[in-house]
Amino acid sequence: MGETEDTKAIIQKALEGNQIAFSTLLDTFWNGVYGFQLKRTENENDAEDITIQTFSKAFDKLRTYDPSYGFKTWLITISKNIHVDLIRKRKRNLETGGSQEAVKKVLDDAPSAEDQLINEQNLAKLLLHIKKLKPHYQEIINLRYFKELSYTEIANELNEPVNNVKVKLLRAKKLLAEAIKGEQ
After folding, report:
1. What angle do CA 146, 171, 105 make, to 5 degrees?
2. What CATH number does the domain located at 5-92 have?
3. How far apart are CA 136 and CA 157, in angstroms?
4. What span, in angstroms and rounded, lies between the C-alpha atoms of 69 and 110?
5. Which residue, 150, 132, 129, 140, is CA-closest to 171?
6. Are 80 and 26 in contact (CB under 8 A)?
7. How far is the CA of 122 from the CAs of 154, 173, 175, in angstroms?
8. Looking at the whole model, is its pTM more than 0.85?
9. Residue 139 banded pLDDT, cuts 50, 70, 90
10. CB atoms within 10 A of CB 64
11. What is the CATH number of domain 113-183?
12. Where do the CATH 1.10.10.10 domains begin and end in the chain?
């Protein structure tokens, strides 16, 4: 069962570096991967972490995706491997640093619709919305928008790969934009 033409077109745009295409892939497939991992792990935090890592890895390895398989199937396979690795790591109970491989630039800094919506908000109201997010999303929004750190600086601060930071920020902005829209 291959991929739909729509998804193929979006993946092609993402391969060309289009930020909106990455955002669309994240929005379209997030719930499927997250739901799958929530059933597997029975833990919201683990499911969310694995989903973030899944998209991070998928965006980094997008060139290796074979369209004759469904994109969701490919994401689920990546997420299964990440989950297995997580279990192994926990068994070993070793704390090791993140991989040092060079990470391709996934998203450019062009402001998205979410950015504009966030920027137009009154600061006091915005802070209230941010406080409703999970702590790791609050932290990443704070580092990016209030401390104005670059992706690389945030990655160093959080000791996470740059791609994880980008995916987490994308997700945080989407949740924040949804909260703002929901109130209007």
Report:
1. 80
2. 1.10.1740.10
3. 13
4. 31
5. 140
6. no
7. 25, 16, 17
8. no
9. very high
10. 8
11. 1.10.10.10
12. 113-183
End-to-end CA distance of the chain: 41
Structure tokens of 3?
């991929």
d(CA 71, CA 4): 9
- HSE (CB half, 13 Å, CA atoms) of 6? 3
Q: Per the structure block, which two tokens stand in for 132? A: 């409703």
pLDDT digits (tens, 9 = 90+) for 17-52: 898 999 999 999 999 999 999 999 999 989 999 999
In angstroms, rounded to a whole number, what is the distance separating the alpha carbons of residues 142 and 157? 12
**Residue keyed to tokens 């941010």:** 130
Q: CA 118 → CA 41, 132, 173, 179, 181, distances in Å?
A: 33, 14, 8, 10, 10
Residue type at 175 in one-letter notation:
L
pLDDT at 1 over 60: no
